[in-house]
Every structure is written in structure tokens, then in C-alpha cells.
Amino acid sequence: MKMLRRYILTALIAMCVCPATVAPGNAQSSTAILNIVGKWGGQDSDGDAVTMIFNEDESAEVLFEGLPRLSASNLVGGRVLWILDATQNPAQLDIVIYKHGLESGRLKMILQFKNDRTLEIMNSRDMKTRPVSFEISDSVYQILLQQNN
Q: Model confidence at 32, in pLDDT bands (50, 70, 90)?
């Protein structure tokens, strides 16, 4: 499963390494959004290191151990944006990748704040569906992150 995850993430990143432009995202304004801005580091349920950076301009950088950094600098002018919908329960977080001005990939996740400096994020192992709860199972990855600001 770990190899499949790496393959899917690598393929997603490889699809996006080309010029792209896009209008800014549409993250909703809320206290949760203000709290997520910053650099977060931790590990996933497989023990791999994960770093996520959520910038105020809605751009994002994601680094999974052993994979290329997912960021605009690796997309030759492309965009990687984060979208947080804190009105949903659980809150929904998407990392959206654009290519030629069009969406070319989306990581669908859910998140919750464990405390002011700790985030719990869940994403499905198939990288296509969004988990519906924080229940640990073989079909999801749990990512625990601490704010590094």
C-alpha cells in the first residue's frame, strides 16, 4: 500500500510539472482558516515525515518523505492551492493542483484541530475519495502535524 501511495502521489506531481496559471482559490473566511496558515510538520500513519505549508495567499507546499516537493516552484509557474471549508463537519481541506489554468489534481482530506498547534488530517489511500470521519482504518492515512511557526 505504501508503494501504491507513493506511485499515485508521484504520478499526480508528474502530471503537473508544466507551465500553468490560475485565478486565486476560494477558501472561506473563518477563524479556522486563519489558524491553518503557517508551516506544519509531523508524520503520517506509515511513519513517513510530512511537511505542509499553508500561505495566506492560499498557495500551498506539501512534502511527503521520499517524494518531490509539491509546490508552485516545482510546477514551472503552476499553482498549488489549499481550500478549507470549515463550514462542513468534519472540516474539508483540499490541495488543488492546476495545469494550463485548469485543475489537474485534487487531494481531498478532512481535518480537525487537536489543539492550537496540532492538526489531524485524514486522506484516503486511493487519493480520490474524501474520508468521512477520523476513524483509523486500512483505507485512510492519518497525518498528525505540529505548527512550526
A: low
Whether the bond between 90 and the residue before it is cis, its omega within 30 degrees of 0, is: yes
Nearest C-alpha neighbor of 109 from the set 89, 125, 90, 131: 131
Distance from C-alpha of 149 to C-alpha of 129, rounded to nearest angstrom: 30
pLDDT digits (tens, 9 = 90+) for 44-55: 998 999 999 999
**Whole-number Å distance between alpha carbons of 139 and 120:** 16
Question: Model confidence over 112-130: pLDDT tens digits?
Answer: 999 989 999 999 888 889 9
The alpha helices in 16-146, defined as continuous H runs, are 31-36
Backbone angles phi, psi at 4, to 5 degrees: -65, -45
The cell for 91 is 472540516
**Contacts for 49 with CB less than 8 Å, ≥ 6 apart:** 41, 42, 43, 63, 64, 65
Query: What strands lie across the sheet with 102-115, from one edge to the other?
Result: 60-64, 49-54, 38-44, 140-147, 118-124, 102-115, 91-99, 79-85
